[in-house]
From TrEMBL:
<dbReference type="Pfam" id="PF07845">
    <property type="entry name" value="DUF1636"/>
</dbReference>
<dbReference type="InterPro" id="IPR012863">
    <property type="entry name" value="DUF1636"/>
</dbReference>
<protein>
    <recommendedName>
        <fullName>Metal-binding protein</fullName>
    </recommendedName>
</protein>
């Protein structure tokens, strides 16, 4: 089953300057899309505003019938993007979407904001 990573493309971290070429969310989205390219069971999409502005940059991980997660407070860099994709791949492989803590990539530890049970 495919896990979808939704990346907020309007996120702006503290220190972002108006007039910058792109938002921090757009930067993270590009990096996550590149890291997810060709990864089985992982898809990406962008969405404008996940309403987690105080904890930018934000992403969600979702798949039908599985626990869903919101993660945030990322620096928009390659390490964060790879950690997000690595976790999404494990989420896709887990029957319930719950990945044991010992399997979490270091780059996503401390970035969980919420989790939501699947809809029936």
């Amino acid at each position: 089953m495919t896990t979808v990573i939704t990346i907020c493309d309007t996120c702006k971290c503290d220190g972002w300057e108006a007039g910058s070429e792109q938002t921090d969310g757009e930067t993270l989205a590009s990096l996550v899309e590149a890291a997810a390219n060709g990864v089985d069971g992982v898809a990406t999409r962008r969405h404008s505003c996940l309403m987690g502005c105080s904890g930018a940059c934000n992403v969600t991980l979702q798949a039908p019938g599985k626990m869903a997660y919101t993660l945030g407070r990322f620096t928009p860099d390659a390490e964060a993007a790879q950690g997000i994709v690595d976790y999404a791949a494990k989420h896709a492989q887990a029957d319930t979407g719950v990945v044991p803590f010992r399997e979490w990539p270091q780059a996503i530890k401390g970035h969980f904001v919420t989790r939501h049970p699947p809809l029936d």
